Amino acid sequence: MAEVFGKRVAVILPPREGFGPQSAGAIALLQARLAASAGAGFTVTIVGAPQKGAIFPLPFRAAEERWSMSSLFGGGDARYAAAVARVLRGLSADLIEVHNRPDLARRLAARFPARRIALFLHNDPRAMRGAKTAAARAALSRTLGAVVCVSRFLSDAWMEGSDSGVPVPRILPNSLDLAALPPSPSSAERDRVILFAGRVVADKGADSFVRACAEALPQLPGWRAVMIGADRFRPDSPETSFTESLRAAADKAGIERLGYRDHVAVMAALSRAAIAVVPSRWQEPFGLAALEAMAAGAALVSSHRGGLAELALGASVAIDPDDVSGIAAALVGLARDPARLSALSQAGQARARAYDVPEARRRLDALRMELLTS
């Protein structure tokens, strides 16, 4: 560790990512968690867009965009890259970790030592600027110090269409600080609550949750259904046509809608709910909502699309997000089976221990040391 003592790491957030208790999305929450527990030898600074409101109590530098004639041709991506580059020159960063922006990593690699830059992917790269083609992805793999994915699903997506000579991305799953979670009561002590916690959008299956609960609740006296979330990860999330239509259906079914809640409140709710439902339609890159539910001890009912399959297989009830009656039947069967509820709760917590932040930090520190000494 003596070789890397005091090295400076710059963690670059996507340009619209919040970095505070009331604004952070999944990427920012994960990076705040890792930065707060950074291994000895590394000084971590988060770099992102200027923030509104409170930010996490961690070293943070705002990348202030400036208008110029050259930026007019490059657009917002070029302005943000230039702003980040100015911050990086002031930090004299030894390592640069770019999150979820392949094109930003490419631009920074033209200004800083490319072998000291790692690209961390949290979503499918095939839809991202700068990584839509196999050739573009291969070029980045050969140029950057590392490409890191949060799941094997994303690693496979990155390698799609590539030849055998392209370096395969590293896999560093998302993590939770299990020591910071609220106390988890036994399954028998939990509230008879079926909980949805996430973005209230079609991709996340929020409408399937409402319709399934409308079928299930009349068969489950004493049980309630609760929704936490909004269209965006912020208190002032706008109403959309989707959330408006869902509100009426949820009210008719007797589902409690709590709207946006910060991460602390979400984890508190998960720690009390007997069942958590993650009915995602889209190919989840990882499935952080499922990991949070399992870690909190809620019995998980989940689709197994994308990264959810490798995360939740064997520790959840698998559902088809578009089979509403099938979801309702799964909820009724689970709610009526205390032994299975308890078994799933324990299985989920056991699975979550493999994703605890100390292990993630160890693996991240090992990667950082490798990039510094290669």
From TrEMBL:
Entry-linked SUPFAM superfamilies: UDP-Glycosyltransferase/glycogen phosphorylase
Under InterPro entries, the record lists: Glyco_trans_1 (IPR001296)
The positions making up the signal sequence are: none
| Glycosyl transferase family domain residues | 186-349
Task: Please give the Gene Ontology molecular function terms for this protein.
Answer: glycosyltransferase activity
Key words of the record = Glycosyltransferase, Transferase
Tell me its family.
Belongs to the glycosyltransferase group 1 family. Glycosyltransferase 4 subfamily.
**Protein name, UniProt field:** Glycosyltransferase family 4 protein
Q: From which organism does this entry originate?
A: Acidisoma silvae
